[in-house]
Amino acid sequence: MIIRSLLDTDLYKFTMMQVVLHHFPSAQVQYRFWCRTPDVDFGPFIDEIEREIDALCEVRLREDELDYLRSLRFIKSDFVDFLGLFHLPRKSIHVSPGDKPGELSIVVEGAWLHTILFEIPVLAIVNEVYFRHRIPEPDLELGRARLMEKVEMVKQASDLPAFRVAEYGTRRRFSHAWHDEVLRALKARMGPSLAGTSNVYMARRHGLTPMGTMGHEYLQACQALGPRLRDSQVFALEVWAKEYRGDLGIALSDVYGLEAFLRDFDMYFCKLFDGARHDSGDPMEWGERMIEHYRANRVDPLSKTLVFSDGLNFSRALELARRFAGRIQVSFGIGTNLTHDLGHEPLQVVMKMVRCNGQPVAKISDEPAKTMCDDPAYLSYLRHVFDLPSV
């Protein structure tokens, strides 16, 4: 089995799931899998992926795992009680060949509360099954050498004593075993520069801080769940604040692009939330705009944190840290560059929500390639509602 614990996922899946339990327990959703890497042949591996998903749907949280979740200050007791009864429903996930030769189709449909935990472990399964066959003898020594180069880069950055990195690489990791080795090495050698990991299982295993707040799907679902479409981003942030009462205060900024985010992220939200996360577009420009926005809303930027997490490597993260040093607090989430840097090209795979309560939902990214929707008419309407340029 690749996934042996339901904790082997990103923290933000649990934090969003708690909001769903308390505010949207009847919401119905659909997710779809995409592979952005061209000419990938999944055909020989579909049966094996199915078997791994069969096993995933048999996994339950053990009592000691539930106790660990109870120890997290923002996780509520009724949510843990619910998780004690929870398992992923096999009937809600459908795996088959795609329309083109070699394509893989994965569709998840059902109650959001019961399907939200599929995404991360399913992507990890697809990656590990694919690469265990395509790269049966990975160059682990090369991977270890590259990892040590990254650690040395941080150690040599003496001008950045507050540099902090979290590991965000579960969904595209080479394997569970390599993920585990990477975190063991980082904990031993990076000291306080390692802020934590997004993976709850690995955080518990290695005594690290689990990191994460909200993902794109949460704000997307609010397009269908809020009072009206134009107010969906404000609605999502208000519901989040109501649930967590000042905890988990990093807002995601790119579901409708930066301009729309800044229009909605007014003085109230500037003061209420601890900061914002960047996940598409030019990070330098984004950081400058966020600093300017805080100042315009009479908020000291040094009291806020910007989290950068868009396809980062260590060189880029250090460059960003130097750009904003002394101007605003910064932190970095690095994923694939940590958990899948073994000398070959990793897959660019995603699984995104495309419908909620029967209506399309979409993400309009600051990076056009990341815009995702299976309904062009709805995407056009969404651009109109949020006053975004057409493409």
Automatic annotation (TrEMBL):
One of its GO terms (biological process) is NAD+ biosynthetic process via the salvage pathway. Residues 163-389 form the Nicotinate/nicotinamide phosphoribosyltransferase domain. Signal peptide: none annotated. InterPro entries: N/Namide_PRibTrfase, NAPRTase_N, Nic_PRibTrfase, Nic_PRibTrfase-Fam, Nicotinate_pribotase-like_C. It catalyses: 5-phospho-alpha-D-ribose 1-diphosphate + nicotinate + ATP + H2O = nicotinate beta-D-ribonucleotide + ADP + phosphate + diphosphate. GO terms for molecular function: glycosyltransferase activity; nicotinate phosphoribosyltransferase activity. The modification Phosphohistidine is found at residue 216. Its EC number is 6.3.4.21. GO terms for cellular component: cytosol. Transiently phosphorylated on a His residue during the reaction cycle. Phosphorylation strongly increases the affinity for substrates and increases the rate of nicotinate D-ribonucleotide production. Dephosphorylation regenerates the low-affinity form of the enzyme, leading to product release. It holds the Pfam family NAPRTase_N. Residues 7-127 form the Nicotinate phosphoribosyltransferase N-terminal domain. Coiled coil: none annotated. Pathway: Cofactor biosynthesis; NAD(+) biosynthesis; nicotinate D-ribonucleotide from nicotinate: step 1/1. Keywords: Glycosyltransferase, Ligase, Phosphoprotein, Pyridine nucleotide biosynthesis, Transferase. PANTHER family: NICOTINATE PHOSPHORIBOSYLTRANSFERASE. Belongs to the NAPRTase family. Catalyzes the synthesis of beta-nicotinate D-ribonucleotide from nicotinate and 5-phospho-D-ribose 1-phosphate at the expense of ATP. This is Nicotinate phosphoribosyltransferase. It comes from Orrella marina.
